[in-house]
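User: Good morning. I'm curious how 1-O-alpha-D-glucopyranosyl-D-fructose would be positioned relative to this chain. Could you predict the structure with it bound?
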Amino acid sequence: MEKSWWKEAVVYQIYPRSFMDSNGDGIGDLQGIIQKLDYLKNLGISVIWVSPIYKSPNKDNGYDISDYRDIMEEFGTLEDFDELLAEVHKRGMKLVMDLVVNHTSDQHPWFLESRKSKDNKYSDYYIWKDPVDGNEPTNWGGYFSGSAWQYDENRGQYYLHQFVPEQPDLNWDNETVRKEVYDMMRWWCEKGIDGFRMDVISLISKPEEYRDGPIHPGEKYSFCGAITANGPRVHEYLQEMNREVLSRYDLITVGETTCVTLDEAKKYARSDGKELNMVFQFEHMDVDSDEYGKWTDKKLYLPDLKKVLNRWEKGLEGVAWNSLYWDNHDQPRVVSRWGNDSDQYRELSAKMLATCLHMMEGTPYVYQGEELGMTNMHFTDISQCDDIEEKNIYVDLVQDAKVYTHEQMMDIISKKGRDNARTPMQWDTTENAGFTTGTPWLGVNPNYTTINAADQVEDENSIYNYYKKLIQLRKEEDIIVYGNYESLEEEDENLYIYTRSLQNKKLLVICNFTDKDLKVPDSVREMVEKNRGILISNYKEGAERLRPYEATVYLV
Ligand code: TEU
Ligand code: CA
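Assistant: Good morning! Here's the predicted structure, ligand included:
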């Protein structure tokens, strides 16, 4: 397999609003990030991805951009950005920008002009359709509840928005739009950034014809993503972007590819380098979804997770490249979700989950606070929440459809909502976890007195130092990056077991996803007994049996 620096990297994701506030207004900012760069350097991180920091009215916290060439006021200025980039580079790290070009904000000058008339320069920058029989052009529903179409009085037409109405979709079939985007990307590359994480890039090419989609029983709309993802010209556009921008710089490029299939992923991230370096796929995040999508408290059935991940690991091997993640700003905290966040098992299970992910093939992403084992928040009222997705779904499922009671819904939001990941970073035991001296924009998780960075950096047995070790191992052991992946015991409901092999070397990874003491399966007993050493484990001494949440990586 061909070697690349971005295959060997570990990426750390910063959600700037919640990372570190430098001026006491309760909102994280660029100067705050600069203050914490040594913390990331010490962790061993090589690449930092910052969620959007561009000018934005914040209907979706920066994923609605009104100016691609300026910084959100709360976050700082372009000078702060230049300083940040220089400080990142000074420490030998790289900086990746979030690129949100499936849609803009409705306050972007392009959209303000576009909605003015049907015949100005910007009229076709977005997707406008005439009403059909006085109604929406199609029955498509957006990602965040409701119709994906919004009527505009002035044009007497509907525009498409796959996310909230304040996030109109750009018209990528318009060549001028594409040129504008590439131009903007080059502008950032010329500043010296090191890559792009491309938001919902699988959605940019819309179908040739706009037709109704299937409606599931009990639902009002047909989910648009299932119709628009991996559209007819998406690969053509990405190849063009690659020629026009990406190939001209040494970048790490990751496509956040909602609704991507394995076959499509092979096109987006094929090793011939014509499109992107890697995909960020979602399938393993859906294994605990059901009838109402992610809004359920359905428990994880481990074989489901393994089947999905094993298929991606094997499917892309030698052909394309994948991202590895449990957490990000759209997901609940994994230690609460698939681990065990009780006092007794939080540390062990966080380390187990980290081991399970970091020994796989692909580029690992660490989301801020994951390295501390930060947990979900307990939300009891929707007024404590900020996320538009949560607010909309609350109205949908509690007030309108009456599927859940208030209590049930708050319980599910506390398990699955995006705000779980967005509570402020827990730096130390001072007020507001040391995140701000003001009033934080979103409540701090009260457990910061026991879960915080200051304590963990000092404690050699902490989750933080365990992540540090995992990251270091990836730098030392080629096999972790380039070894072949084989899964074992796929039907086992409690254990996640796989091997990695490179030349004459082999690693055996065993992870116990339960709080029970389990026997080593016969199929791997011999390998375990004859092991040639332990690369890493979340338990100090070896044992005959697998202890609760044990993760051990054997050299075999
Ligand atoms: O997310 C894309 C995406 O697929 C999400 O809508 C995901 O399905 C959802 O968050 C799960 O709850 C990206 C960004 O990561 C997200 O923060 C944005 O809200 C979204 O795009 C729109 O830009
Ligand atoms: Ca601030």
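The CA atoms of residues 131 and 137 lie 5 Å apart. Residues 175-191 form the longest helix (17 residues).
Let me know if you'd like a different ligand tried.
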